[in-house]
Amino acid sequence: MDLPSKWNVCFSDLTLKDGLIFEINNDYEKFEDEFGYSEDVPLTNEEALNLLNMDDFEDEDNSDDDNTNNKITICGISFEKLKTKMTDIYGDGKVMKLIKQKGVGNCVPFDAQVTIKYIGHVEHVDEPFDSSFAREGAETFCLNEGALIPGLEIGITTMQKHEIAIFIIHPDLAYGKYGCAPRIPPNEEILFVVHLVDYVDNGSVKEFQSLSLEERKQFANVIKSVQGKFNTAKDCFSKQKIKQAIREYGKALQWLEEAELKNQEEENELNKLLSRGYNNLAVCYNIENMPRRACTACNRVPIPTAKTHFNHGRALLKMGEYSKAMEVLQLALKMESGNMDIIKEIRLVS
């Protein structure tokens, strides 16, 4: 079944909450490996719907029919029959799950920011009541903030990155006794196909912000929150939200600069994190055409690398400081001879 080309329904309409973010995939800096973003496995509307039309759901009552090998259409699927193939997440039958494509890594944390593609159905209705596939883009939500119905949040926290799963959700954890007219009737179970594209763990940052000022300076507490901020910044960068990425990196680096260290091991780890943060901050500043700030970020890197000198040279070129740019780009080339990105920048100066 093809979905309408213009689909105006979204989760925010159904939950009366804001917070929808559209994902934009585009590589800015191939040289900047820190911003690598997990590959999205694309599905069309038809492919998403076909996840429901598999051998798992053959109508056993029609086994003698000439069309035994045909798949059941969505309109003909009985939720009760689907449930016999599914796992009961909490044991009360209110959130049922069937994995159609296994994921990788850890399950989604409780307070994560998730990027998903999804399609939602009510029983015996061929047309979905909502579909991100129809809008041709993954959508991002923060869990535990009311942006999604409770049953879907429960289901998502059982998923791994790149997993595709089907959920049937009881009305108690969906739209309840009132439903959401005209799309969802009262006391209606709903079915979602969900593709978890990616997630960012925000829980450590929230925990850090609840600490006292003295506790926030302890390096053991700082490092967890900084990793969370770095992940959020990376996610912002992948969506071309460069200014937001700058803010996230800036906050993380501020926490690192204020950290109190106990030993050499903590100092070594601090320098690694500062180097990572300032290198990536320089990339962001160059993209936003802020070369002076990019230079400042590069100068604050405790452990300069070829990437540091490359970004510094690029910033100096933007400022018209050609001789200085050549010096730092030559340093970068010495550290990574044969790197074509560095060579291309040097040719701009020559």
Rounded to the nearest angstrom, the radius of gyration is 25 Å
The helix/strand order is HEHHEEEEEEHEEEHHHHHHHHH
Q: How many β strands by DSSP?
A: 10
CATH topology of the largest domain: Chitinase A, domain 3
Domain unit count: 2
Summarize model confidence as the mean pLDDT.
Answer: 80
Q: Please, could you describe this protein's structure?
A:
It contains 13 helices and 10 strands. The model is unreliable at 1-41 and 57-73 (pLDDT under 50). It is of the alpha+beta class. It folds into 2 domains: 11-200, Roll (Chitinase A, domain 3); 203-349, Tetratricopeptide repeat domain (Serine Threonine Protein Phosphatase 5, Tetratricopeptide repeat). The strands form 2 sheets. Strands 1, 2, 3, 5, 6, 7, 9 and 10 form an 8-stranded antiparallel β-sheet that branches. Strands 4-8 form a two-stranded antiparallel sheet. The protein is elongated and about 70 Å long. The longest helix has 24 residues, at 264-287. Strand 5 and strand 6 form a beta hairpin. Helices cover 40% and strands 14% of the residues. Helix 9 packs parallel to helix 11, helix 11 (306-318) packs antiparallel against helix 12 (322-335) and helix 12 runs antiparallel to helix 13 (340-349).
What labels would you give this structure?
13 helices; disordered N terminus; 10 strands; alpha+beta; Serine Threonine Protein Phosphatase 5, Tetratricopeptide repeat; Chitinase A, domain 3
